[in-house]
Design a protein that fits this description.
The chain contains 17 helices and 12 strands. With about 375 residues, it is an alpha/beta fold. It folds into 2 domains: about 150 residues, Rossmann fold, CATH 3.40.50; about 210 residues, Rossmann fold (3-Layer(aba) Sandwich). Helix 3 links the parallel strand 4 and strand 5. Helix 2 crosses helix 15. It is globular. About 35% of the residues are buried.
Length: about 375
Amino acid sequence: MDLNKACLYIVDEKLGTKNYPFEAGPEGTGMKNLLYQYPVLRDVLASYGIDIATRDINSAESSFLLFSLENPHLVESVKKDGQIWCLLIVDPPPWVQESWDRKHHGRFDYVFTYDETLVDDCKYFYCPYAQDTEYFSIPEIVSEDEFRRRTLATFVSHSIHKYPDPEHPRSTLHLRYETIKWYGDNHPEDFGFYGGTFTNRNYYFGFRGVRFVKPLIPHAVFNAVAKRVQRNLIKVYKGQLGPLEKFEAIKKYNFYYCYENTTGINGYVCEKIFDCFYYGIVPIYWGAPNIRDLIPYDCFIDGNEFRDQESLYHFIKGMDYKTYRRHLEQAQVFLRSPELERFTVKNAINCIVTPLIARIESRHKLVGSR
């Protein structure tokens, strides 16, 4: 074991090898690079004489420190005496259920999570979902003319489900589908949805057991039927976006349907609402129950206050520019406030490293005495 090495253990082959998290830059994959905090972690650990690299370069077995991004059940190594293992929980239960299952936490010395209800400052420590605030700048507030030219509402997502998930009742993936369908059926001129592989996968055309039926139907016939069934959904589909293209796309709209991947988890506030703030669009938010404690400003609309899609539509459709501008002004107040610091990469890395400092600084003495 090398006391001056750390391993960043990411299961995904592309993201977790060849030092990708430290060298990908702002574009990365998907909508943007969500690994932007790891170069900061690398720099902080370097100040203590520790080199961190992906598992193919600094193996789990040879490293003093191991940081597992999710998937604690898939770390194949055996923990050695003297090693420090840390679990970083970023995704909510609908994505990686095992990360939240305490039976997988036994091998880890520290578990870092944004869910403050789990924090005990002994094994479980708070760490926010880090935002790359340094990458963005505070935008100019749109003019009244621009407000009137923009289309009403949008959202961007690769993850949509037609039906509620019985295993994860707080998942919002089916609510996203309901929004797309409602606008497609009622007001396609007021809405645009961006996502990946919409027409190829036909993942909005579905019924229970469709995966068993689809192989029995000729591909061309199935696609023709799907296109017909999805005709109203296709009316509001605006295409697939590459890395960083999201930001230019959403600037064409006044409101963003900001669905976190799940509701009911205190502190789970990912990049969606911040993307709205930094690109001058008002978010309609469903997510963390304690969002008002985390962002205590009138800069977003609480989606839970509306009984259905139609009542929300009429509310935002009827909003005047003066009211809209006030939401944008409050967003800028928040972006300049001390409350923003909680979500910064700097704070997130500080939350991770601070509990480890004593053991890092004394590692040669402690391990050498064993």
